[in-house]
Amino acid sequence: MAFIKLYRNKLEENFQFLDTIFKSRNIQWGVVSKLLCGNEIYLKEIIALGVREIHDSRISNLRKIKSLDPSVQTVYIKPPAKRSIEDIVRYADVSFNTEIYTIEMLSKEAQKQNKVHQIIIMIEMGDLREGVMGEELIEFYGAILKLPNIEILGIGTNLNCLSGIMPTQDKLIQLSLYKQLIEAKFNIHIPWVSGGTSVAIPLILKNARPMAVNHFRIGEALFFGKDLFSGDTIQGMHNDVFKLYTEIIEITEKPDAPIGELGESGVGSTYAPDESEDLGETSLRAILDIGLLDMQPQYIEADDLDITIIDASSDMLVVDISNSKKNYKIGDLISFKIKYMGALYLLSSDYIEKTIG
């Protein structure tokens, strides 16, 4: 059975690296846990780090967090759906919002539950996902300012999540200006200006972040140490907090090209022969106990760089081990580095065991 392993020491070192960066710059931050898909084993590891603020886009995951530690501040990081309002107020201390109608429903539900629900108003700044348009922000803010049982904790934006728009210094300065406009107009103080996610870390490291932007939501950098501007690993961080381990269930020398009449495969693909390939060539192929139900091959890379991924079906992955210097046998494990989307597939699969290393 294939399994994914979280390396506790590497996670802790990445967390301490980030926490030092943020604290030294007087920035608040929370951990985005949606990658973990509500896995209790891994959520306990996050809480054990001392994390006091966890963000997620699934209310079931926030419910799990509250069951593990009610004192953790939970943040729902997408505009709430109408059918989820009751649970949002019950399990999320804070939610991201863009619609007056939704906030009015949150207000009514918060009164029923005798709670004060905090909200972040998300502003559209070019990535074209969720957000109030800038020219409508003052009117929007004024319309919800006096709603009962609603506290406006801050403003924020999402960049690089849909269209790839990067959080440049100019973008964050613009966000800071929205804070100034609101505070001047309504004579209030806005506690949080939430400037984005892991993609903003390079700006923070360069001290290019406007001081008014004082909050960030971090997931990918914590688990993968990735600089999303350059694609490299941030110096001082680990890119292999997670590893995938798969077992070899067959090793056979086979032709490189399939034999027989070609049609569409069971997963909807059709083999396209390469005109330059020698139809008489063979390779040593290994079949691994994982497939498309659990992962996508483009998001994993074998630690043994001499292994080439050939293709996958629903439950099996075929790799070429001809050039490997290792003498693989049936039952051996082959380990893989995982990209963010690869981990998301694996962690959402009920068929992949989750372990701690």
Automatic annotation (TrEMBL):
Domain spans labelled Alanine racemase N-terminal: 10-225
Essential cofactor(s): pyridoxal 5'-phosphate
Key words of the record: Isomerase, Pyridoxal phosphate
Superkingdom field: Bacteria
MF-aspect GO terms: alanine racemase activity; pyridoxal phosphate binding
A GO CC term attached to the entry: cytosol
Gene3D superfamilies documented for this protein: Alanine racemase
Alphabetized Pfam families for the sequence: Ala_racemase_N
UniProt protein name: Amino-acid racemase
Originating species: Flavobacterium crassostreae
